[in-house]
Amino acid sequence: DRLSAPNMALPAQLKPIQHHLRTAQEHDKRDPVVAYYCRLFAMQTGMKLDSKTPECRKFLVKLMDQLESMKKELSDNDSISQEVVGNAHIENYALKMFIYADNEDRGGRFHKNMIKSFYTASLLLDVLSVFGELSEENIQHRKYARWKATYIHNCLKNGETPQAGPIAMDEDGEEKASASCPTPHLKPIYESGPSGPPTTSFNNIHIPPGAHAPANTPAELPPPTGGVQLSPDDFTKAQKYCKYAGSALQYEDVGTAIQNLQKALKLLTTGKE
């Protein structure tokens, strides 16, 4: 399978990165930033998997060359030159795919495209790890998206109707559910009754209840000190945070919007991130 480096087949030892490389290839024209970070993740993961055997070394060197030339081509793109912007770009893109697939799922519309969207969202959440540790929320989204993709795929393959909408998973739910359609261990996720919000984060994907807003609300920010000197870089960063908040609101993701607006406020009032 020729997935990434030109004219080179993927060595068997590097099989775990094949889907990330395929996603990169699919986005070369559609969204080069996504393609770049998918390859960067694949390269970093590939180095850990096997950088010793000749065929893997050769493949990874080709991949590095490809990343270098992409970096040059995209050098004027903020998402490549500034990690904080790249991080937001990939996260927003993954979230957009996740929300599309989740809406289709909740509406009981099962098809190849939504399965692929769930799966691609999970791959892009893998890719986010190039920027640092994943948040607990993203780890949960990734697990849920990957599990849903497998579960719906297997149901359709077996001619069964998947259960629509959020389903609670056991710790090892992924393995159990990958076998077939709903089994007794899959219980509906809404268990807390009308009195309180459901406990699991999957229900908060659209508009999280206020209780889930981060604790450091603007009221708790230190008051601006008279002598805060903001650099041009600070203004750029603050603008970026506001921009992310705007895109998060397009997807009705209030949590991310609040988080980014708080970062902007903190930066503008204290001069520190």
From TrEMBL:
<protein>
    <recommendedName>
        <fullName>Vacuolar protein sorting-associated protein VTA1 homolog</fullName>
    </recommendedName>
</protein>
<keyword id="KW-0967">Endosome</keyword>
<dbReference type="InterPro" id="IPR039431">
    <property type="entry name" value="Vta1/CALS_N"/>
</dbReference>
<dbReference type="InterPro" id="IPR044538">
    <property type="entry name" value="Vta1-like"/>
</dbReference>
<feature type="domain" description="Vta1 C-terminal">
    <location>
        <begin position="232"/>
        <end position="269"/>
    </location>
</feature>
<dbReference type="InterPro" id="IPR023175">
    <property type="entry name" value="Vta1/CALS_N_sf"/>
</dbReference>
<dbReference type="GO" id="GO:0005771">
    <property type="term" value="C:multivesicular body"/>
</dbReference>
<feature type="domain" description="Vta1/callose synthase N-terminal">
    <location>
        <begin position="17"/>
        <end position="158"/>
    </location>
</feature>
<dbReference type="Pfam" id="PF04652">
    <property type="entry name" value="Vta1"/>
</dbReference>
<keyword id="KW-0007">Acetylation</keyword>
<feature type="region of interest" description="Disordered">
    <location>
        <begin position="191"/>
        <end position="232"/>
    </location>
</feature>
<dbReference type="InterPro" id="IPR041212">
    <property type="entry name" value="Vta1_C"/>
</dbReference>
<keyword id="KW-0472">Membrane</keyword>
<dbReference type="GO" id="GO:0032511">
    <property type="term" value="P:late endosome to vacuole transport via multivesicular body sorting pathway"/>
</dbReference>
<keyword id="KW-0963">Cytoplasm</keyword>
<comment type="similarity">
    <text>Belongs to the VTA1 family.</text>
</comment>
<dbReference type="Pfam" id="PF18097">
    <property type="entry name" value="Vta1_C"/>
</dbReference>
<dbReference type="GO" id="GO:0015031">
    <property type="term" value="P:protein transport"/>
</dbReference>
<keyword id="KW-0813">Transport</keyword>
<keyword id="KW-0653">Protein transport</keyword>
<dbReference type="GO" id="GO:0010008">
    <property type="term" value="C:endosome membrane"/>
</dbReference>
<comment type="subunit">
    <text>Interacts with VPS4B. Interacts with CHMP1B. Interacts with CHMP2A; the interaction probably involves the open conformation of (polymerized) CHMP2A. Interacts with CHMP3. Interacts with CHMP5; the interaction involves soluble CHMP5. Interacts with IST1.</text>
</comment>
